[in-house]
Structures are given as structure tokens and as C-alpha cells.
Design brief:
By secondary structure, the protein is mainly alpha-helical. It is 69% helix and 0% strand.
């Protein structure tokens, strides 16, 4: 494994298996932060309302932790997101396990769910025949991209260049048409060539940060390129 390969989700799982230590709790928290949005979206698409989906997502993670479901997992098992989706399906299908998890989780909130953000995001999902599984994949992909932008913005903030990042962000997000280089040059008091170079550097950093974030979802660096292709295909679907 290359030296610059970041901690993967599987490494987080292995750390979380260490027991009730500070590092294990931190690892569990990181896993929850990455995967609760797509799981919540999956449950919503299965027909549950906001409150039901929130309770079921909380109950799922509580069930996962209390039953030590992570203890015997190894990277050879495949994509961690696939394991979580299968586990959620099993919980939803098993009425007894679901009711028991909800009962144990009553009043307990192992993770913080920003439901307002997720509900706003759900408004952009077209009303069509997208399956809950595809919604899960799409929310995973969008969560990855959101984390990439957040990490990149944090880097620019530390360097004192957050304003530059905000002005150049349209060139990498595609959320809105990027303004002409001449306009950005005038606003930033730079030459057009300097703006083009700044955009080129931002795109390179975006690509590097995306690869690092994807690395957190696979078992090893040799899988990163395939996973990026999968992410892009999910977003195009």
C-alpha cells in the first residue's frame, strides 16, 4: 500500500473493532458521517416518512454497534457500502429485529442527522422510477463530492485563499455556468493567464482530493480508479 494512501473505510472498521476506546469511537463516528446520508435516502425511497426514516437510520447504527456486526468484517468482503446496504435491507425485512432495534433506540441518538440538508437534497431527485438502491448509490456519490469540496475549501481557508476558492469553484462543480476568465480576472485583479493557471491548479487539487476521499471507501489503492468510474456512472444515471 502506497505511503500516501489515506485511511480506508476498512481501516476505520478495523479500528472500530478495537473496542470502546477513544480511537474506536472516533472511527465509528467517521463511518457514520460518511454513510448515514445514503442510508437515510434509501429508507426514504422505500416509502418511509422523514421521522420514520430518521428513527430507522438511528436504529440501524445502534443495532450495528450493539450487535458488534463489524467485529468479523475484513476488506476481502468487498465494498463497505455494499455491506451496509445489505445490512439495512436485512433490518428492514426482519420485522422483529427492526422493532427491537427501534425499541432499544428510543430516545437514543448515536449519530447526529442533519435531516433538513438531506430533505433539501432530496428535492433535486427526479420523480421517476429510480430504485432505492440507485438512490442509495447516488446519495453516496454526492456525499463523497460534498466532502471533497469541504476538504478543499478547508485547505484554501488555511492558506488564506478561501475567496479565491469560492470564485473559482464553478469551474469544478458544474452547478452553474462558470463565468468568463476575463470577468474573473477583473474581479480578482489578475491577468486572464493567471486565472487560467489558478483554475488548472484547482482542478488538479480537486482530482487529488477526490482520489483521497474515494480511497476511504475501498480496500486498497488499486481499486480507486474503478471506484471513481463507478461514482461517475452513478451520477450520470
Amino acid at each position: 500500500m502506497s505511503a500516501d494512501f489515506r485511511t480506508t473505510s476498512w481501516s476505520l472498521v478495523l479500528t472500530a473493532q478495537d473496542g470502546n476506546t477513544g480511537r474506536s469511537r472516533e472511527a465509528l463516528g467517521a463511518l457514520c458521517e460518511i454513510y448515514w446520508p445514503p442510508l437515510y435516502a434509501f429508507v426514504r425511497r422505500r416509502g418511509h416518512d422523514r421521522d420514520q426514516a430518521s428513527d430507522l437510520t438511528q436504529a440501524f447504527f445502534l443495532h450495528l454497534l450493539e450487535n458488534q456486526s463489524l467485529d468479523n468484517l475484513q476488506p476481502e468482503a468487498g465494498r463497505f457500502r455494499s455491506f451496509l446496504l445489505a445490512s439495512m435491507k436485512n433490518l428492514l425485512a426482519d420485522e422483529h429485529a427492526r422493532d427491537a432495534a427501534l425499541k432499544r433506540g428510543a430516545g437514543r441518538r448515536p449519530i447526529r442527522l442533519d435531516l433538513d440538508t438531506e430533505e433539501r437534497a432530496a428535492r433535486f431527485e427526479p420523480v421517476d422510477d429510480l430504485t432505492p438502491e440507485l438512490i442509495y448509490e447516488k446519495r453516496w456519490a454526492l456525499t463523497v463530492l460534498h466532502r471533497v469540496l469541504a476538504n478543499l475549501r478547508e485547505e484554501y481557508t488555511r492558506e488564506g485563499n478561501v475567496e479565491r476558492f469560492e470564485r473559482l469553484k464553478p469551474f469544478i462543480t458544474g452547478e452553474q455556468p462558470a463565468p468568463p476568465y476575463r470577468q474573473i480576472a477583473g474581479e480578482m485583479e489578475l491577468t486572464e493567464d493567471a486565472v487560467k493557471m489558478a483554475v488548472h491548479r484547482l482542478r488538479k487539487r480537486y482530482g487529488k482530493t477526490l482520489r483521497a476521499e474515494i480511497a476511504e471507501t475501498v480496500a486498497g489503492p488499486e481499486e480507486v480508479d474503478d471506484e471513481i468510474r463507478h461514482l461517475l456512472s452513478v451520477l450520470r444515471s
